[in-house]
Every structure is written in structure tokens, then in C-alpha cells.
Design a protein that fits this description.
about 0% strand; about 120 residues
Length: about 120
């Protein structure tokens, strides 16, 4: 797909859009149900011109499920989403992604207004 914005900005990769649909495009890349895979890998493939699809069952990582609105289940994240997005909870816990600095009360700001469990139709 040609993108005037991409051309004008001289972007190295193509823009990526998220679309909700009831049917999967033919030959789209998708993780196998129940298998782990980071959503960034499929976003990278999409930026290189491939079509990728996600569903609640095939979205490979917990953070991706939260970020794309498939769930609000932070149970797999020790200390909550604020620790996952920042530096983690400390010794004995998984490292965080280091996207942001966690501050007290941040959880309510991140999750308070999200509409989760987005249906493909409706």
C-alpha cells in the first residue's frame, strides 16, 4: 500500500495499522494458538509489508494481549502492569520492559479508562 505520509517523512519502514475484523486475511502471519511469541515480531513483519493477525487465542504475549485490548488480566505480572512497563519489581522477579518509570498510583491511570475485551464485530 502506498503511503504519502510515509514517503514525505522518508520512513524506513511502512506505517502499521490495527484493524478489527471478523475474518482473517489469507496468508496472514499469526502465532499458533497457545504458543508464546512477542507481538513486536509480527509488528515488524507488518512494517516490512506482510499482513499479520492477532486474536485473544493467538496473541503470543501477555503484554500484547493487554496492549491490544484483549484482556485486562494483570495476574501474570508480579506487581501489576506498572512494573512490567518499567524496570520490574526487583530481585527474584522478572525484569520489566523499561518503557517508563513506575510511580505510585500509575496502575489506575493506565487501566482505569481502557475498554477491554474488544469484539471484532458490533
Amino acid at each position: 500500500m502506498k503511503s504519502t505520509i510515509s514517503d514525505e517523512l522518508k520512513l524506513r519502514y511502512r506505517p502499521v495499522a490495527l484493524l478489527f475484523a471478523d475474518e482473517k486475511p489469507e496468508k496472514a502471519l499469526e502465532f499458533k494458538e497457545g504458543k508464546w511469541g512477542c507481538v513486536v515480531a509480527l509488528f515488524t513483519a507488518a512494517a516490512r509489508g506482510k499482513t499479520a493477525v492477532f486474536s485473544k487465542e493467538t496473541c503470543g504475549c501477555g503484554g500484547g494481549k493487554i496492549g491490544m485490548g484483549f484482556t485486562d488480566d494483570y495476574g501474570h505480572v508480579p506487581g501489576g502492569i506498572e512494573h512490567f512497563l518499567s524496570t520490574g519489581r526487583g530481585e527474584g522477579y522478572p525484569e520489566g520492559e523499561a518503557y517508563i518509570i513506575a510511580i505510585p498510583g500509575m496502575h489506575q491511570g493506565l487501566a482505569g479508562d481502557w475498554e477491554l475485551g474488544i469484539p471484532a464485530s458490533g
